[in-house]
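S., here's the first fold you wanted:
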Amino acid sequence: MSRSSLADQAYLRLREGILHGLVPLDRPVSEKDLTGMLHVSRTPIREALLRLELEGYLTRDQTNRLSVTVPSVEEIIEDFWLRELLEVHAARLSARRISDEELAQLERLVATDRDALRSRAVDGLASKNEEIHTLVLRASRNRALVRLIQTLHAKFHGLQAFAVGSMEDQEEFVAQHANLSAALAEGNSARAAEVTRAHLHKARDLLLAALDPSGAHEGRLADVVLPSSATVFADAEAALSQVPGALGRVPALARPIPNSRNPSPEEDPP
């Protein structure tokens, strides 16, 4: 196998490990350890690490040691605000566009989610959390929106709220998943948006508390003044309503699948 292919494989495996929280945050990333773990020479490892550093997954300190990039409190607050803006909109779209088949799949995932909670399988909870949110995003039928949200998810490099929350927190997350599934089944876009917003706020607060146990972030959270997503949506819709056709038909490639809750989904705004 060529050196470039080995470097690509090393990059993909390391990136996957970072995204899923398998690379520790509290110690440097060692070339020597990685060569033994991945069974490749140092040259492909070095190329993979450089690529990950350039893409922002790794950060080099003053002693030239690499470690997983941990976002700042301000970055987390601002990114979660943007996630709220996008994911709440995606949930609204999904309530109108999700297919009956996708709803059945979502109900199965929620049932598995509950089983993982009962058995205290934290890894299973994190896995189902990702599957549930991926399905809801896909049901929005807006591929550009999905790409933007997935890019934001990747920025947190495996810092999942499930990894830092208590059992009570995990119970709340599972209940929110069930509530979101019920809202989508009812075609209730307002309820789906409300549950999604609460879910993101909970995840944000847990992540901030885990990265800053001192609680100093609470004052900084208040300092970062951002308009609510509801305000932004109201302003955007008011502006778009003045543009002829701006809230018109969905492009054919993004057109949703008809279902019992929305017999004419092609009339939804994109």
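And the second, which I think is the more interesting of the pair:
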Amino acid sequence: MRGLQDKIIMVTGAGSPRGMGYAAALKLAEYGAHVAVSDLEHAKTRLVELADRIAAMGRRALAISCDVTDDAAIHACTGRVMDEFGRIDGLFNNAGYGSMSLFMQTDLDEFDRMFAINTRSIAAFMQAVIPHMKATGGGAIVNNASLGGIYASAHYSAYETSKFALVGLSKSVALEVGADNIRVNLVCPGAIDTDMGAKMPAYYAQLTGVSEEQSYQAIAKDAALGRWGRPEEVAEVVAFLLSDLSSYMTGAAVPISGGSPQSL
């Protein structure tokens, strides 16, 4: 893909080999970017393996442990990237957390945890990188809102509260930083075959009494394409939004749902 060669991109939440962050980091490197990947300390071994894979592609890589609920850790992470690469051209805010429950059975502390990880941490990361992007003439930010950021469904009240807030935050920031040649967009994936996505069939199976496989297939049939998405398919859209090919896009929330009716 044109428009990513030698760009410096940060990817958060990149520690799961089945995850969208991991897939995006590899895709960005494939298209010529140098990539700094971060996740929690317990994922450090997988992060280092990911960085090694990126380096084997001839790109520069950096693996950083970072708790996104810790503002100081976010600024330290950003500082390490600046020390290593000298600039930040792009950021994929992928770190996130999800759970499912009926609203009346959801502890209010879960709302706080969801907001801290899915909304506040992304605000903190954007505040950390935007000054560096301004100093070098611009940049691109992609935030992972999920389909839960643009439509509502039962059993996701805390999650969707945090993701709807993230969409509003991203659009507002896009308006503020556009004059500095900084673009802010969102990806809104639907049912993607990741570790987090795997929670859905298990939850609905327990709720309805069907098997997890039946629940998995039912979720797949909800999409026009009749299947779950792959992390690599999300990664392609992320790469496009971080590249110069999307230079006239900002404030967009892009569904990646296989034609889920709620996104059409």
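Why I say that: Residues 191 and 197 are 6 Å apart (CA to CA). The helical segments are 20-30, 44-56, 71-85, 108-135, 157-177, 199-208, 212-221, 231-242.

Talk tomorrow,
H.
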